[in-house]
């Protein structure tokens, strides 16, 4: 799953202004549409299997908890592909790389639709996940490069909005086709979206010689930063709970809430609508205060996950709380993205892909944990309880990260600051700014 990159824009593009292409607004809008269409396709395939999990389990002859491995396989593909492709393809021209990533996406989803059994379907989902994180990372950089001056944040948000729209339109559509024509037809639809995106990228995205390219060594430098790792751990642990719930949401709504199967696509659309609203709210929160926003949004997610344990037993309350789960999940995205970009320094490309790897590692872990508690006989509401506990663990990680960051700043502060805190009073020759700093 992918956050909107609210603060990615200005520091992410280091090309000189003279290298920025002067393209007319219609061409620019066409390029943004092509990039967003790719996000729409990727978001659709990422979540489609969750709504189709019971049918995929029956079609491959495995139990539903075992079928949850299909979700985990895709997520692991993202985890592996995001940093690997970002590093190895650091010098590849961005437009060429986008087309290659989308071609891999098409092949992976075609293999999913044609997979004859459990093992081959696992491999196909892993392949389909490989280009996910790298595509969003590179697309965000390209959007920032093509945007008009002063409108880069809006351009990046437009690209990332494709992911949220997928949950309102794409995922319910695949659920509908999956119920009417079988689960394989849903991935055929995804393949068609991928092919259309390939054509759009080739025809609408201009040559990108001016986009900054890096090198593997510089990009891998992000991995040496403690705050990068702490932010990734926070995202992985804290978001795992929401994926534990969403992976098995189809059976939860039908078996526990009593919702008719025909209403599952509507429920998925409601969840996606919450995600879109969460994007808007989360962006404003992140603009005002990143760290308080992270704490507040994670606490909200914990509360709605805990509430879902009870709310799931009634169809109306289940749908209402499901909407707020979607909203709470995506409200955290902008602040997480902002904190990671700040911590990454010059390694913006790798950082913008690593966050997608973290979210999908949460996806994999959440699907696995949810399957474990369901298989153990605790029922379909148990993943929500586990999710709330994982959210608490995420808060603990975030608290440790903030304390470590504060300690680092204290240790690197000018001597006058330490003297003031140690109670030695104002030393001769020290400026008032130094003495007064916290």
Task: Report on this structure.
This protein has 438 residues and is an all-alpha fold. The protein contains 19 helices and no strands. Helix 2 packs antiparallel against helix 7, helix 11 packs antiparallel against helix 17 and helix 15 packs antiparallel against helix 16. The longest helix is centred in the C-terminal third of the chain and has 31 residues. It is globular and about 60 Å long. The relative contact order is 0.16.
What is the topology?
Layout: H1 9-12, H2 25-51, H3 53-60, H4 64-88, H5 94-114, H6 118-129, H7 132-146, H8 152-181, H9 183-204, H10 216-220, H11 226-247, H12 249-256, H13 264-288, H14 290-311, H15 315-344, H16 348-375, H17 382-412, H18 415-421, H19 432-436
Helix pairs in contact: 2-4, 2-7, 2-8, 2-9, 3-4, 4-6, 4-7, 4-16, 5-6, 5-7, 5-9, 7-8, 7-16, 8-9, 8-13, 11-15, 11-16, 11-17, 13-14, 13-15, 14-15, 14-17, 15-16, 16-17
What helical percentage do the residues reach? Answer: over 70%
Q: Which runs of at least 5 residues are low in confidence (pLDDT < 50)?
A: 2-21, 416-438
Order of H and E elements: HHHHHHHHHHHHHHHHHHH
- Helix run count: 19
- Separation of the first and last Cα atoms: 38 Å
Shape: globular
What's the story with the biggest beta sheet? none
**Structural class determined from secondary elements:** mainly alpha
Q: Mean pLDDT, as a whole number?
A: 79
Q: Which range does the strand content fall in? A: under 5%
Number of strands: 0
Q: What is the rounded Rg?
A: 22 Å
């Amino acid at each position: 799953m992918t956050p909107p990159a609210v603060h990615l824009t200005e520091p992410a593009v280091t090309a000189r202004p003279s290298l920025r292409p002067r393209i007319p607004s219609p061409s620019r809008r066409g390029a943004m549409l092509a990039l967003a269409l790719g996000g729409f396709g990727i978001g659709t395939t990422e979540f489609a299997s969750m709504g189709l999990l019971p049918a995929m389990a029956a079609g491959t002859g495995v139990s539903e908890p075992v079928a949850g491995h299909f979700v985990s396989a895709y997520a692991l593909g993202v985890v592996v592909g995001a940093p690997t492709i970002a590093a190895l393809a650091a010098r590849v021209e961005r437009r060429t790389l986008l087309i290659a990533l989308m071609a891999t996406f098409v092949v992976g989803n075609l293999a999913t639709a044609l997979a004859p059994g459990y093992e081959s379907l696992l491999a196909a989902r892993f392949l389909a996940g490989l280009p996910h994180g790298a595509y969003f990372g590179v697309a965000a950089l390209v959007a920032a490069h093509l945007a008009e001056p002063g409108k880069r944040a809006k351009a990046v948000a437009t690209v990332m909005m494709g992911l949220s729209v997928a949950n309102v339109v794409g995922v319910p559509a695949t659920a509908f086709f999956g119920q009417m024509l079988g689960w394989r037809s849903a991935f055929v639809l995804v393949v068609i979206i991928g092919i259309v995106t390939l054509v759009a990228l080739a025809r609408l995205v201009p040559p990108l010689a001016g986009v900054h390219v890096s090198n593997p060594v510089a990009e891998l430098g992000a991995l040496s930063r403690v705050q990068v790792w702490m932010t990734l751990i926070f995202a992985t642990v804290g978001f795992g709970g929401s994926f534990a719930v969403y992976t098995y949401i189809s059976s939860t709504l039908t078996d526990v809430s009593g919702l008719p199967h025909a209403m599952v696509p509507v429920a998925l659309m409601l969840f996606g609508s919450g995600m879109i609203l969460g994007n808007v709210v989360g962006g404003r929160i992140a603009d005002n205060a990143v760290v308080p926003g992270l704490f507040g949004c994670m606490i909200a997610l914990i509360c709605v996950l805990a509430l879902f344990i009870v709310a799931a037993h009634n169809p109306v309350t289940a749908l209402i709380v499901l909407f707020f789960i979607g909203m709470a999940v995506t409200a955290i995205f902008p602040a997480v993205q902002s904190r990671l970009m700040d911590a990454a320094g010059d390694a913006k490309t790798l950082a913008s892909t690593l966050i997608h790897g973290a979210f999908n590692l949460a996806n994999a872990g959440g699907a696995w944990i949810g399957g474990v508690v369901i298989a153990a006989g605790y029922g379909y509401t148990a993943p929500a309880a586990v999710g709330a506990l994982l959210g608490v663990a995420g808060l603990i990680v975030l608290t440790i990260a903030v304390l470590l960051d504060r300690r680092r700043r204290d240790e690197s502060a000018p001597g006058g600051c330490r003297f003031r805190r140690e109670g030695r009073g104002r030393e001769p020759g020290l400026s008032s700014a130094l003495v007064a700093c916290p």
